[in-house]
Design goal:
Blueprint lengths: L1 H20 L6 H18 L6 E5 L4 E7 L13 E10 L4 E4 L2 H6 L12 E4 L7 H8 L6 E6 L19 E11 L7
Antiparallel strand pairs: 1-2, 2-6, 3-4, 3-5, 3-7, 6-7
Amino acid sequence: MNSRLFAFFLLLVGAISVVSCIDPDQTQEVILERDKEAIEKYLQANPITSVKQYSEPIEGFYMFWQVSAKPERNALLRGDTVRVNYTGRTLDKRVFDSSIEQVAKDNGIFVSTRNYQPLKFPVGLGFTITGFEFAISMMHPGEKATVIFPSRLGYGSQANGTIPANSPLIFELDLIDVKKGPNSNP
């Protein structure tokens, strides 16, 4: 009986310890609301010219097409391979990555050993962050768009290189082409 009581006591103390370590200013809901406010403020100060738009304000996701193309085929399917040029920025307009060599040089992030070329990856298999992949899934070859999304669709509470934790992200995307995968019907 004493061992059960002792185990229950340890479990209770452990649960209280975990709950007391949670910072109420860092809950997912609070972070999302803070991200959405920052994104709205950014968009008010930096309007993005577009030929079409898509938004989900509740999620904090905004997409603006600078070039729109008529779809040649059906929408992207899981396993289709895309090639996309991109430039990633934080809301303070700092470039943290680009597949374009000149953009990397112009923003002081050039790495001489890197092979600058379009990113190539299969859609729907988790090779990129959620917001990036969702934006690509809404595009057709030849389209260019700017997408802005909250940190939970990016790197979340984890810092990544020069990107601070809980950072909303902006990507300029240029979908070059799509190679249909095994889920496509000819």
